[in-house]
Amino acid sequence: MEQAELFRAMVDICLLIIAAEIATTIGARLKLPRIVGPLIAGVIFGPYFLGGVIIDNIPLIEYNELIYVFGEIGAVLLLFQAGLHMKFRDLLRSGVAAFTIASVGVIVPFGVGLLISSILGYSSITGLIIGGALSATSIAVSLKTLGDLNQLGSPEARLIIGAAIIDDVIALSISSVILGVASASSSISAISFFRSIIITLGIWFIFSAFSSLAIPRFAEYINKLEKLDATNQHLIQIASILLCFGFAGVSGILGLSPLVGAFIAGMAIAGTRFEEDVAFFVDILGIIFIPLFFILAGAGFNPSSVLTSNFLLIGLLSAGAVASKFVGCGIPARYFLKDRERGFRVGYGMISRGEIGLVISSIGITYGLISDEIYAALLTVIFITTLLPPFLLKQSYLNEPLSVSRTRESC
What we know:
mainly alpha, Na+/H+ antiporter like fold, 17 helices, about 80% helix, about 0% strand
């Protein structure tokens, strides 16, 4: 990348973040969830709308490789930030509940996707891709919303995080099977399918357990090094970021999502006594990177594609996507949490789709397994399910004080 392109990209990034902050401020005045601001800013200033306006043969906002790299960094930091709010032992405590919610929350949407595909007369391969795209939860939106509401430490938030991480691992296994089918390197086999999921979950668990034991010792060693100099060098914070991106890279090598690796690193740091210092440092870094991730999520949506899409398909997939996650995750969560509203919040938090759904959809369109019509419908569904959880979660928590006050009055 040339120097001029580098500085142009930095200017565009700053413009996008400023636009997102303005949109967030306007949204706050309208009592909208904060996460909606960056998403809407991304749509407005995306390549399919104002960002694509050509001025002197140059687009208003040039979405080059550097901007997307910054966005990926934002996603990694967001999951690292989430990990800082949960120790590995906390995840183990919610193990059965999280695993059950994640499993049912993948099986039900996958089955709904296959059913809708069959009803509309699509092939089994198309149904496999639709089901796969609907099965994967995107935790990023719900995490940001819960953070804005200061609820990341709540029981339902911990359950959402644990279930979404396991959901992510299962969905990655599904995507690998779909990729194998698409490239004709393997056939659909139930045994190999479940074996892939079990192996991937095993790798994730061993990696998490080892990190939770080793990283606290590593952090204490870094702290001893820092004390050798009277000036604070912030070695703990720098080492934590090294672990964040290092774990993300190792996870990719192991066949896991880099986002899962970042979360594991965050959990490991949460088990140290430096958690608050690292969390403050990551909050500062996140000011630039995290909003950009959501801006790019909005920028990938083409508003005009909705006008030429199959509205029946979009309607069925949207309804199926929302209902299947809410039922598949909310009902088991209600049972484990022994609380109707908290269980529903887990259902709300698991509705959004994102990265893995996009990957599976991209596999389908790249290998010619789905039509442009289905691809556009899946992108629309992903965008709709991204916007919905912040409203549902915010409304649920706004209702909580009222219910508590009524309980007190009755007492």
